[in-house]
């Protein structure tokens, strides 16, 4: 019996020794007890000429507890220093985004409190960074999505969510470009909420494709507090939108928020996608009904015409909706044009050579039902 007890004890000791051994020469890892540190900052202590609208960011050495990073633990002190605090878990970066221009030429203090902790609950030691803002000049009004002056540098943004604290400056020479993707046919409404600008600020919105060709552009004006925008129905794909001022004063600027809102699309007809001249649809001669014009949607068609024949295009709607109709000859010279609310609209031209003639329609009302009668005689 004693031999059996000794054998059992030997087995238990062996199991304990095996469980305590490890293939890791450093032994088993213990709980994280080290305090997080700062790896980098967007500003340095004592820095001057700091921008008035850009993000102020602190990157930590390890993953942090997002719940501990907020507007009471990550604070910018100074006159008018109100904004939004966010944390990027992929980069361990906490940021403060001003809600309005920081007071120019003024000292501010960025404070990160010791209530900020890592995921294990270890407290950051806390710290402050002093900086002085620059004056009100375009170089100090670059927002957190800059540079996005053209399609090649466009800032990708999501749908149905406001992007805050953006700026345009330098009159009509500063463009902000944004890239967006839609997975289904949808109406996209680009809206800019003006936060700070001169009265009657002139504003341009442009929807574009990758080569910069515009679907439509719209000009409007507004004061601080107004929201300006334009909408268009897009098929699935990636598109671009730009906004800019048309003011002539190089020092005019606007502080704005931006959103791409999605809505139910305008219904399209069977000839889509014929938004550009190179995508002309073959409409042929005769009467075609059940055509649909969406808001500012250019519909392009072509028909073969021989030298000496006369082409007549008649566009009819149920109501006298504002419309634009163009007729181009085979070398793309415009030979017929109408812009107004007459109903029907009739354009006619006698050809001087053989080739494809181009017809374009555009309406200023969503879901406009129209018919087109094309005769070539």
The top-level CATH class of the largest domain is: Mainly Beta
Number of domains: 3
Shape: elongated
Q: Give the helices and strands as they follow along the chain.
A: HEEEEEEEEEEEEEEEEEEEEEEEEEE
CATH architecture of the largest domain: Sandwich
User: How large is the share of residues in beta strands?
Assistant: over 45%
How many strand segments?
A: 26
Helix content: under 10%
Cα distance spanning the termini: 119 Å
What's the alpha carbon Rg, rounded to whole Å?
Answer: 32 Å
Largest sheet, in brief, is: 5 strands, mixed
Q: What average pLDDT do the residues reach?
A: 90
Oligomer: single chain
User: Which class best fits the helix and strand makeup?
Assistant: mainly beta
By DSSP (H or I, 4+ residues per run), the number of helices equals: 1
Low-confidence residue ranges: 1-27
Biggest β-sheet: strands ordered side by side in the sheet: 9-11-16-13-14
Secondary structure topology:
Elements lengths: L1 H19 L17 E4 L5 E4 L5 E5 L13 E4 L5 E6 L4 E6 L8 E6 L14 E7 L21 E2 L6 E6 L6 E8 L3 E11 L4 E8 L5 E9 L4 E8 L2 E9 L8 E10 L17 E2 L3 E8 L5 E7 L4 E8 L5 E6 L5 E7 L4 E6 L4 E9 L4 E9 L1
Parallel strand pairs: 2-8, 9-11, 18-20
Antiparallel strand pairs: 1-3, 3-6, 4-7, 5-6, 7-8, 10-17, 11-16, 12-15, 12-17, 13-14, 13-16, 19-26, 20-25, 21-24, 21-26, 22-23, 22-25
For the structure shown, list the relevant keywords.
single chain; 377 residues; mainly beta; Immunoglobulin-like; Jelly Rolls; 3 domains; five-stranded mixed beta sheet; disordered N terminus
Give a verbal description of the structure.
The relative contact order is 0.10. The longest helix is centred in the N-terminal third of the chain and has 19 residues, at 2-20. This protein has one helix at residues 2-20, and strands spanning 38-41, 47-50, 56-60, 74-77, 83-88, 93-98, 107-112, 127-133, 155-156, 163-168, 175-182, 186-196, 201-208, 214-222, 227-234, 237-245, 254-263, 281-282, 286-293, 299-305, 310-317, 323-328, 334-340, 345-350, 355-363, 368-376. Strands 9-11-16-13-14 form a 5-stranded mixed β-sheet, with no helix packed on it. The protein has a 5-stranded mixed β-sheet with strand order 18-20-25-22-23, with no helix packed on it. A 4-stranded antiparallel β-sheet has the order 1-3-6-5, with no helix packed on it. It is built from 1 helix and 26 strands.
């Amino acid at each position: 019996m004693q031999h059996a007890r000794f054998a059992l004890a030997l087995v238990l000791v062996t199991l304990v020794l095996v469980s305590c051994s490890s293939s890791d020469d450093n032994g088993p890892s213990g709980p994280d007890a080290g305090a997080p540190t700062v790896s980098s900052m967007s500003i340095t202590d004592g820095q001057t000429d700091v921008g008035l609208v850009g993000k102020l960011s602190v990157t930590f050495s390890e993953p942090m507890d997002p719940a501990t990073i907020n507007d009471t633990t990550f604070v910018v002190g100074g006159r008018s220093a109100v904004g939004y605090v966010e944390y990027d878990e992929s980069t361990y970066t906490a940021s403060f985004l001003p809600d309005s221009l920081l007071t120019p030429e003024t000292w501010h203090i960025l404070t990160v409190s010791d209530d900020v902790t890592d995921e294990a609950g270890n407290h950051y030691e806390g710290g402050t960074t002093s900086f002085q803002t620059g004056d009100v000049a375009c170089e100090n009004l670059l927002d957190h999505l800059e540079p996005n002056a053209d399609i090649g540098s466009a800032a990708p943004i999501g749908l149905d969510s406001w992007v805050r604290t953006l700026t345009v400056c330098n009159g009509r020479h500063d463009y902000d470009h944004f890239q967006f993707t839609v997975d289904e046919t949808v109406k996209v409404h680009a809206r800019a909420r003006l936060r700070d600008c001169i009265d009657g600020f002139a504003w341009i919105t442009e929807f574009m494709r990758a080569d910069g060709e515009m679907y439509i552009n719209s000009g409007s004006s507004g004061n601080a507090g107004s929201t300006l925008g334009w909408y268009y129905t897009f098929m699935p794909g990636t598109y671009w939108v730009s906004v800019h001022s048309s003011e002539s004063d190089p020092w005019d600027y606007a502080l704005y928020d931006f959103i791409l809102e999605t809505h139910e699309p305008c219904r399209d007809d069977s000839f889509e996608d014929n938004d550009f001249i190179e995508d002309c649809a073959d409409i042929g001669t005769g009467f075609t009904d059940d055509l649909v014009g969406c808001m500012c949607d250019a519909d392009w068609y072509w028909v073969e015409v021989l030298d000496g024949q006369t082409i007549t295009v008649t566009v009819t709607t149920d109501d006298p909706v504002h419309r634009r109709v163009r007729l181009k000859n085979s070398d793309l010279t415009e030979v017929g044009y109408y812009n107004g609310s007459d109903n029907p609209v009739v354009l006619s031209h006698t050809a001087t050579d053989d080739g494809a003639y181009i017809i374009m329609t555009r309406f200023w009302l969503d879901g406009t039902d129209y018919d087109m009668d094309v005769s070539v005689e």
